[in-house]
Amino acid sequence: MTDRPESRPRCPHFSSGPCAKRPGWSPDALEAALVGRSHRAGPAKARIQEVSDRSRAILGIPSDWKLGLLPASDTGAVEAILWSVLGARGVDLLAWESFGAGWVSDAVKQLRLDDHRVLEADYGELPDLAAVDFERDVVFTWNGTTSGVRVPNADWIASDRLGLTICDATSAVFAMPLVWEKLDVVTWSWQKVLGGEAAHGMLALSPRAVERLESYEPPWPLPKIFRLTKGGKLNAGIFEGSTINTPSMLCVEDALDALRWADSLGGLPALIERCERNLAAVARWVEASAWADFLARVPETRSCTSICLRIVDAWADGRSGAEVAAAVKRVVRALDAEGVAYDIGSYRDAPAGLRLWGGATVETTDLEALLPWLDWAWEEARAGAD
Ligand SMILES: Cc1ncc(COP(=O)(O)O)c(C=O)c1O
Hints:
The chain is 34% helix and 15% strand. The protein is α/β, with parallel strands linked by helices.
């Protein structure tokens, strides 16, 4: 029998979103928030703009790109751009897990685009990236949060493309090196790698994306919160601290706290290193595990943020999927009850398994302390099924 481990993670927060707050965070970090002020007041606008400026500096976003704050988290930013630019040319839609599939559904079932191709792959795999046609627009997710599969690099993206590359990077940004020259639209939410709050989305636009916005008018109506242009021109205010509607100044302050923390560590290289160290810690454990393996088949595609594991125990052979899923549920419940790990069950549409967040706010020592608990809990869960 595996002994019940003695030491516990200092922080049991391994959720894939909202993700763990930065080490040492407390509500005191929000003390200077401009609450009770108009978000249109000079100091508030400056605070909002500071989020963009600091994000741009850390991420190395080119100076000719626009970066603004939109409502409705990453989903808001993605949908504002899909509704604003799609339809101008054909589109290739890539999906290999639940969120990518959601964007396919938007384009096909909601916008009803005739000229679309869907390039799909099952959980654990990537679609054939060589089949993407860059004369068309391309919509993809840099890191598939629910399968733990990421694109390994941007080499597959054409530099001389005619279409726009639209990238949902919410669980990749601040954790993986994005290649800005290969991207035209990038979106994310604060709630992921830096442990900020949800409900606010970031939208980064290349000059080519701005050109599309200013030269194309979609045939469908756009609700106010999706409207990025005014009189045929980019609504520049959105990218200068004048949000479309009212943001939370508490969340803005929290985002600034997270960005200052990121700077204090050493910026993007340090953030990436923390995430890769977390993946490496899990990989060492997987290597020795007789019951868990990465859901991502190809090592180069394994996410360093949403680390997804599937069950490969011989015990599961000949048992139904429901039995295995029930055992996984027992693991998740037991570790929650122990206060060792919260929210580590795989996403509802993904194969039964575990998902450990390894983003920059998670300490490697906490992940390392969790891993023996997984062995203990799995053994207990298996015994409970016999
Ligand atoms: C890849 C991806 N896209 C979109 C979303 C939705 O994000 P939000 O709830 O911040 O809009 C998530 C959330 O986990 C995600 O992982």
